[in-house]
Amino acid sequence: MRVAIAGAGAVGRSIAGELLENGHEVLLIDKAPTAISVERVPQAEWLLADACEITSLDEAALQRCNVVIAATGDDKVNLVVSLLAKTEYGVPRVVARVNNPKNEWLFNESWGVDVAVSTPRLMSALVEEAVSVGDLVRLLRFSHGDANLVELTLPPESALAGTQVGDVQWPEDTSLVTIIRGTRVLAPTADDSLEAGDELLFVAAQAREEQLEDLLSVRREDAVG
Hints:
Radius of gyration: 20 Å
Largest sheet: 11 strands, mixed
Distance between the termini: 53 Å
CATH superfamily of the largest domain: NAD(P)-binding Rossmann-like Domain
Low-confidence stretches: none
CATH topology of the largest domain: Rossmann fold
Number of helices: 6
């Protein structure tokens, strides 16, 4: 997979390093000469250019990229890069960094963004996830379809504890994608059972989140009654 990253700061370099370790081809783009630190990520391609300029993106051959990541520290730049990547080059997947949470509402499909990542939002979500049982925690927002990646740790008193996945009537527009049980990561099948303490990851429409939380958190006695 070929990935172009606009912004070669600490965030961009960190993402590049992980992608390279996983065997992907990475191009880092930055207009600041001081940001071009080839020795820090020597396996990556580097381009000194303004990612908001069509000529620069032509040089980067963005049309050959499977993913573009707008990872600069400027939300305006990230929006422009996202829009150009999607509309001018037809990049299948565009991921954008949101620096100011107040701007998060702009990072949607109208600006070419498939996935918006707000570092403060993600950090607070991970804190919530670590201490919350029975509460739905939103981890990531996907622009297409108004869907979110959400997590809930199944409480011991939940009526669904001990129930098989295939027997649960999940809300519409929701999909259980992963069960984390201790150190194991399970791809759920209809025959898998849900256990108290399981971390359940769903992709769910925002309008269904409350319904999903109610379903997972309902107490045994309430379900019986």
